[in-house]
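#struct-pred

JT: dropping the chains for the assembly here, can someone run the whole complex?
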Amino acid sequence: MDIPYTVTSRPDTGLYNAKIGIWLFLASEVMLFGGLFSAYIFLRVGADYPWPVWDLDVKLGFWNTVFLIISSVTVVMAWASIKLRKYTQYKLCMLATIACAAIFMVNKSMEYAKKFQHYAVKLTDGTILTGHLPQGYQVKFENVDALELTIVGSNKAVDADPVNHVLSSVVGDVPKFKFPSGEEKELNKATFGELRKSMRDAAFAKMQDERAKMIEAAEKAASVATTDFAKYEAARKLTIAKNYHSLSDTKVKLIPSAPLKIAAKPSQFFGYTDTSLTFVDGTIATGKLVDDKMTLEVDGVDTRAVAQSEKSLAFDHRYLGEAWQKAFVANRDHHIADFEKKYPTRDKAKSATLQKESLFYKEFHSAEPPAAGEAHGGKHGAEAHAPADSHGHEAHHPTVVIEKKDITFFSNFTPKLNTYYAIYFTLTGLHGLHVVAGAGVLAYFLFFNGRMLREDPEHLANRVEVGGLFWHFVDLVWIFLFPLLYLL
Amino acid sequence: MSDNIEEIQKSVRKYIIIGIALLALSGFTVWLSTVELPTHGLNILVGMIVATFKASLVALIFMHLNHERPIIYKVLAFTVAFAIVLFVLFIVSAQDPLVFEGFYNRNE
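RK: done, full complex below.
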């Protein structure tokens, strides 16, 4: 069966059918992205933190803009080339379009990867330190001499599962454990399964025993009841006894044959004290807390939430110290003086750029603070932020060891960090999917529609036009995304 | 869309010129964002005006919206109207009576 109006126009619309179809689809796409742009506006208007401006790699974003614009030109040229029957030029233009899409996606994934490895640590006074965690972040325990498991009676969200949740954080070889039966065994799926089964069986036997006792007591009460009320009470108790089916939780202690060392990531535990660590499966390891400090290679100090920026906790003697404080103050005062000279009539407090440049110190180009007088390296914004990490970041940043009591929150630069990164990943992620899908459709036309090119070029021209319309839309979305997320 | 060969030949030149213009405007947008206008809101406004101009170039020239059939404009008129509503929706939130005044500011 032939699909009608793939080449010729339908009389009532004056268009071939696919074109009406793609425009209706694009109209719904405008609504999809429009909703997300609307969310962006709401999040930005309601943000209770300085909205990140020039925080992403602008150079990378700009090059991506360039590649998308070039691809928009090449895809419309591809369509024109078929119309003009220049088939080699058509193929080259399509190839160029797909290549641009590929470069765009490679750049995007590099940008994402960088965000996943970059961390922000919020201190108790509101200071935010940004940087890298070369060793990750782990809470370390030593001399762990027991694991207390809670095997719950009925289905609950938290149930002991030490094989999956505890053993992965044990440092070194896992020793054998002394089970409640007295045997020394390896802790694995099979042995823990047996243990759980025996504990459940014991709990079940205990429950049946209790129920039998309750029934016996209720029946005895019924036999001696004389008044109506006593009979009623006894019957009620009997019903309760018959319906009694509460399996109690069982606590089990596993003793390792040699004390354990544990290093757990925050996602692996609920909380800890100086002597115990509670894992997410409810298992409690008792031992001694030896280290819960965070080793951070600092590449930025954001003091915008601190009332007196020079007194930020970041410049405490335990952390960056006095020399970096001096460098910070010199940089801050330099920017303020510069601003006052350039814009004498403007309000300093209202300039977001000044707030950022003076209070978000990112001039960490060496492990040591700059000597007096050369504090300001002349680098701003993204340039100062540019990753020195591609060539060995250890040497370029000071390392601080932050005490846990000073940290209120930390996260890598993912949606968890703030609403800006939430909407950034939503919008660019959805846009990236459109790039992949659009390039896939164009690649299909190029590689699988060779026969149509020879036999029915007008039909293929229409296909390319429709695919191209979608591609231009993807470019159009990026035209707004680039300034909104990278620049303004 | 015209199928006239001569017109298409002419428009190829136009596509390249528009492409170069878009690249130049992108560079301009980046430069503009480093200029400190009286308020940052003004920076956003000007940046969005430039972006809208770039978007219209793409829509009018690359997507051939400068000479399309009436039915497409009818479809797009709805889209544009709803999109504008979405973008100004936040103004309504300023009228929201459910404003949290803080724990300590209530007169009791």
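JT: nice. The longest strand of chain A covers residues 139-151. Chain A has twelve helices and 14 strands.
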